[in-house]
Design a protein that fits this description.
This protein folds into three domains: 69 residues, Orthogonal Bundle (Arc Repressor Mutant, subunit A); 120 residues, Alpha-Beta Complex (Aspartate Aminotransferase, domain 1), CATH 3.90.1150; 212 residues, Type I PLP-dependent aspartate aminotransferase-like (Major domain) (Aspartate Aminotransferase, domain 2). The radius of gyration is 23 Å and the shape is globular. Strands 4-12-11-10-9-5-6 form a seven-stranded mixed beta sheet, with helices on both faces. The chain contains 16 helices and 15 strands. It is α/β, with parallel strands linked by helices and 465 residues long. Helix 5 runs antiparallel to helix 13, helix 7 crosses helix 12 and helix 9 runs parallel beside helix 10. The chain starts with 15 loop residues before the first helix and ends in a 10-residue tail after the last helix. Strand 5, helix 8 and strand 6 form a beta-alpha-beta unit. The structure holds pyridoxal-5'-phosphate. The site of pyridoxal-5'-phosphate has 15 residues, from helix 7.
Length: 465
Amino acid sequence: MTIWIPSLELDSRSARYRQIAAAIGDAIDQGQLAAGDRLPPQRTLADALGVTVGTITRAYAEAQQRGWVMSRVGSGTYVRDTASHEPPFSVHVADDQSDVIDLSLSFAPPHPWRDECLRDALVEVSQDPAAIAMAAAYQPDIGTTAHRQALSQWLAALGFPLHEVLAVTQGGQHGLDLCLRALTRPGDHVAADALTYPGFNAASRHAHLRPMAIPLDEHGLDTDALEQRCRRQVPRLIYVTPDQNNPTSAVMSSERRQHLAELAERYDFWVVEDAVQYVPAAQRGPSLVSLVPHRTLQIFSTSKILSGGLRVGTLQMPATLRERIGSLMRAQSWMCPPLMAEVACRWIDSPRYTTLLAWQEQELAARQRLAQSTLADLEPRSLPYGANFWLPLPEGRRASEVQTLLQREGVLVATPEPFCSGSDPAPQAIRLCVGAATSRARLTTALTTLRRVLDEGNTSPWATL
Ligand SMILES: Cc1ncc(COP(=O)(O)O)c(C=O)c1O
């Protein structure tokens, strides 16, 4: 067993667990730690560095998330033998034969491991009589204790703050709809960024709510504008995506998050924080769950990390809402199917999960660089590890026209209209999802086509009088 103990001077520039995780990565790079080496027991390292065991637990989880180490239950944490696995950061997806490259929907980049992980999890469940019995029976409305604990641990490992109660939902959209149904009555006002996730617009329309579209800029939702609106009309709740607005990729500044928390207190409204568009912890700002916990519900999902078809997500909330949400879930569908929650929990627990997540982060970063280098002069907006890419169009170009020209060339992109939460005119921009293409080569083809369509100018035929 290795006796590797880093000589570390922990400083206050970043969280201690991140500094310790980074030291593990450095030690592997520098050959001080080799594949198969066991990391020191958490208590030993905690004592050596003068930190809590919890800090070491988070550091090991972070190192695992980065694909450097893997933990074996009851045995310890070991340096991964990456050479014996497939290279985690290469794309080896068979190119699909379809002529259409669809960048209009927001997906995690494809990797054959996604299907394999799902198959492995299903096989494991099918061979475990206790899991089968559990999956065949009715379970508590907000999920079994085991599933709720496993999903809480998953959120903690991803660096999300934990709230008082976690409910297992049927995906992010379900969590969002639950919030609207539980917290509002028909006719209530609900605020959101003027450009926001279309699923919110649809759910609030179906719940007969009145939209309050709040302007946003590159620092996210304009909380001064929200304050002005609150003086005239207080919304019942506000829906926000502070770490990555969908579609614009705007990130809400810390000051505005703080201001939003103050406004929620002052004007007495709920905050629904949607973190479904996954952003790695290091790139995230302070969560509203930490800033104003008793007014905040947080939505997350396995969709952008594992796969959209699982339909398993989480809704974190203050304990005061547990009964209301549980009763609503029973009224809707009794509970999230326990079989799907079990499959998701086994997948998250499998050794390949961390490698897949690390691959995804690197793959998205590489794809974002590709898109940035092709379209840099147009000042696109995206996050280094984000799935989406927001492209304001050059003067004189219209989103519908560019979309039509691209569609004729076999490239699908999204236009802003469905993202508009109010009645302000939609900007002339398009959103592409860099994760959706089946390979980097296909993404390059689509980006080259887009570049050409934009460089050629407006050539769309006119057909009306
Ligand atoms: C911001 C946001 N919230 C929620 C969802 C829905 O997530 P799910 O597929 O888990 O229902 C999406 C899907 O793209 C999204 O972009």
